[in-house]
Amino acid sequence: xxxxxxxxxxxxxxxxxxxxxxxxxxxxxxxxxxxxxxxxxxxxxxxxxxxxxxxxxxxxxxxxxxxxxxxxxxxxxxxxxxxxxxxxxxxxxxxxxxxxxxxxxxxxxxxxxxxxxxxxxxxxxxxxxxxxxxxxxxxxxxxxxxxxxxxxxxxxxxxxxxxxxxxxxxxxxxxxxxxxxxxxxxxxxxxxxxxxxxxxxxxxxxxxxxxxxxxxxxxxxxxxxxxxxxxxxxxxxxxxxxxxxxxxxxxxxxxxxxxxxxxxxxxxxxxxxxxxxxxxxxxxxxxxxxxxxxxxxxxxxxxxxxxxxxxxxxxxxxxxxxxxxxxxxxxxxxxxxxxxxxxxxxxxxxxxxxxxxxxxxxxxxxxxxxxxxxxxxx
Length: 378
Known about the structure:
Strand content: under 5%
Low-confidence stretches: 1-23
Number of strands: 0
Structural class: mainly alpha
Number of helices: 21
């Protein structure tokens, strides 16, 4: 009996071992199938294969990484995070999993978590520029511009051939108003690869420094690579705001081309309306300024220009409504107060005009003095 019992025990043990080996083999087969499907861009099918592999073997970090990768590709970020966190629990130094985890968090706008994940990736893969680049992009999203610049520079240190990196650095320096630094880095980007975006950022830097010829040249180079509304709007701004006298025809032409390329180019509509006001074509100014406000209801400068156009076309009711809306949007918009005072003077409402003048005096003493002269003539 003992021999039979021992024999049965051995058979049971052998059967259990056989089942375990076959199960593990099946998990491996499902994993390999998932990889094959993934390489063919069949991500839904690959996902199912990886799920079946994980159901059999829940201790394989690579399976959970691949699960998370596919879920990210399919934009299922919640489940991706769960799978990728499982991969990092199984293997705490799994750098690729932290990178994908950062991507999932970024797409859920969980930026603090994304920062932690990308920093962990950098800790593990310090010489890989991709982690620095992604971290810097997150810093931009949370308005940590200086941190973004330094992190982009770290990426550039490891990969000086990626034109995106000096472009982003130049872009961020423009955001900070450090235009000379922006020019240096944007030129580095163009030395690697000339892009229309780089030239219009370069144009903006030169425009801001009032280096008008250089700005015009940069914007035109952007347009030569790819006609785009941003460069045409910038070109119009140079001609309108920096040249003395204003290059009216050139500016109008540039704005109109911007609008043709992008019917939602709010800056071009505003610039066009401003020019029509400046050349006393007040009726022509109204429609582009209204369009600028349709595109961006918080453009307080467009309210002051539109209010002025209404006032100059004897439409005081619309002028008053528009200027009051502009003040509501921006309580420090001196021109809205100034033109509002004009309306009251025109209506011979001295008390109301004086009240506006008192508010204006807190913002702009010169404009307040000019308005007071009009009030005193009532």
